[in-house]
Every structure is written in C-alpha cells, then in structure tokens.
Specification:
This protein has 5 helices and 14 strands. By secondary structure, it is α+β, with helices and mostly antiparallel strands. Strands 1, 2, 3, 4, 5 and 6 form a 6-stranded antiparallel beta sheet that branches. Strands 12-11-10-13-14 form a 5-stranded antiparallel beta sheet. Strands 8-7-9 form a 3-stranded antiparallel beta sheet, with helices on one face. A hairpin with a 4-residue loop joins strand 4 and strand 5. The longest helix is centred in the first third of the chain and has 11 residues, at 29-39. The chain is globular and about 55 Å long. Bound molecules: zinc ion. Zinc ion (ZN) is lined by residues 206, 208-209, 211, 220, 222-223, 225.
Length: 309
C-alpha cells in the first residue's frame, strides 16, 4: 500500500544534512579535563600525562564518548544560507502535524582513540525515516541521522547514529495520564530499578576496591574489576547542579520540571527530579532528601525534595 507522504519523506533518505562541519578546536587537554570532571571519570589516561605515557596509548587520549563534543557548535547558530535537508524534512513533518520531537536513542562506533591535536570534521546524512508508528507519546515517524567523523587526514575515526521521534502529541487526558517512559533495562542497571521498587536507593560498589559508582556500568574505572555489589544510600544529598525544563513537554511530566544533578552524601551523583519546591527557589548546594515515588505498578523512581528547614 503506497503512502504518498511516506514516499515523499523517504526521498530524503541518503541526503546529506549539510556541508561538513569542522570542529572549532582540535582535540585538547582542557576540554578533556572539563569533561572528565563533569562526568566524574578519573581514569588517568585522559588527564595524567605520565600515567598516560606508561599506558598502551603512549600518551593522553580523549574519552571515546566525547566524539560528538569535538564538532559541537556551542552557542553559535548554524549558518542559514542554503537549504538544509534535515530542516526541510522537519518542516515537512511539522506541516503534517508531527510537531513534537523527542530523542530516542544514540549509538556510537569508535574506530580509534583520539589524541590531542586531532582535528575532526563531521558529515551527517539522513539515513532512514520509519513508517508511521504508534507510540505512548503519539503516532509518529522515527528519523535516523548518521554522522561520520573524520580526522585531519580524512581517516574515519568514529560514527554516530542518532534517532528522534517526530510525533503528533497525544491528546492530554486528565483521567488517563500517560505513563512515564520506561528506563532501558540492562544487566548492569536492573538492580537500581529493582531496588527502587523496594524503596531502596542502591549505589553500585566495586567489590574489589570498594569505590562507588553511578550510573551503573560493568567495570570499575579505578581497578578494572568486573565484580560489584551494592550499598543502600542514606537518602541525604545536596543539589550539585540543575536545569529547569520548560519545553518540549512530555505528557507524563509536570512543567516547569526541575531536573537536578544530586550529590548523595556517599559521594555519587544522579540525575533526578527535584520536587516540592518552586523552580525559582532552587539553588545549588541546597540540602535534599530522598523520596521514592511509585508511578505505576512497574516503575518506582527516586526523587528529591528540599529538607524542611
Ligand atoms: Zn575497583
């Protein structure tokens, strides 16, 4: 069965999004250090020249997941001259009432480690447009963009697939509120959500060296052990950083939505809703305490509210 709209949308498949984008700066130590501090990754091959020199890399390397950071535009707007295939496609979807957008997933492939001095450029192509899918957010089309990252010699060093859902927002129903999006469960993180269902905020702990880590992952970045257990957090915390989200509104959430980076007294940080406070009263460093909120039969999540003074 032919769908003229879909055929038209799919004529965008394979089209470059625009000309190659050159990173503003080569791969450099200050950006690597800032990133590692923000993420809490203290692997010395990223920041300690002597330790890095003794490693298999022979010198400082950039964390692979920084790939996209090396060509991000920052606050500089994209040049508007000439057509941009992605903008054209988005306008076409908007015109067909698929006006809302949510990022759904991102996959990256790394072909080699990046070293200070590497200078990346990125070329992006619209890879695919799905047929219309029904989702909890509303009916829409998944749009996948593939970006390839090349170094100054033209060598392909990494690729990224980024998928969004452009959807028709479902009607807001006060009686039947949409459920919160489900977390993507893995072998590494299932304990966290299972603990939450039992009312316990669990932190992953390396069974070998004892270091705590969050978000959960398979290997200890300090001692490289794959053995781990968990400890239960006290629930006492402080607000490390936050944003107030106004748009886009996802139906299961209340807006403005305060999303905090919350530092537990045990030392790990997690991203969570900050509730029970007017957004204009939120401030960095404010003491917080845990409340476990059961959103439905399957999903319980930690949230934090200010400590009553
Ligand atoms: Zn360890």
């Amino acid at each position: 069965m032919s769908d003229p709209f879909l055929e038209n949308a799919r004529s965008f498949e394979g089209r470059p999004v625009g000309p190659p984008e050159l990173g503003a700066d080569p791969v450099n130590q200050p950006m690597i250090r800032h990133w590692c501090e923000a993420i809490g990754d203290d692997n010395p091959i990223y920041t300690d020249p002597e330790a890095a020199a003794r490693s298999v890399h022979g010198g400082i390397v950039a964390p692979p997941v920084m790939l996209q950071a090396w060509v991000m535009r920052g606050i500089k707007p994209r040049p508007t001259s000439g057509g941009n295939a992605r903008d054209e496609l988005m306008a076409m979807l908007d015109a067909a009432a698929f006006t809302s957008v949510v990022a759904t997933d991102c996959e990256q492939e790394y072909h080699r480690y990046l070293h200070p001095g590497d200078h990346l450029s990125m070329t992006s192509t619209i890879e695919s447009i799905s047929e219309e899918k029904r989702t909890a957010l509303g009916a829409g089309h998944f749009v996948t963009t593939r970006s390839d990252y090349h170094d100054q010699r033209g060598e392909l060093v990494g690729s990224m697939r980024f998928r969004i859902l452009k959807f028709r927002p479902a009607q807001t129903r006060t009686q039947d509120r949409p459920r919160r999006p489900r977390p993507a469960l893995t072998q590494d993180n299932a304990f966290f959500f299972e603990g939450a269902r039992q009312g316990r905020l669990l932190i992953q702990r390396c069974a070998s060296c004892g270091v705590l880590r969050h978000p959960p992952h398979a290997m200890c970045s300090r001692c490289r052990s794959f053995d781990w257990d968990t400890v239960e957090a006290s629930g006492r915390a402080a607000l490390y950083s936050f944003v107030v989200v106004h748009y886009p509104e996802v139906p299961a959430f209340d807006y403005p939505l305060v999303v905090g980076l919350v530092e537990l007294e045990e030392g790990t940080r997690l991203v969570t809703d900050v509730v029970g406070v007017d957004p204009s009263d939120v401030c960095i460093g404010m003491p917080l305490e845990l409340e476990m909120v059961a959103f439905d039969d399957e999903l319980t999540l930690p949230q934090f509210h200010p400590v009553a003074s």
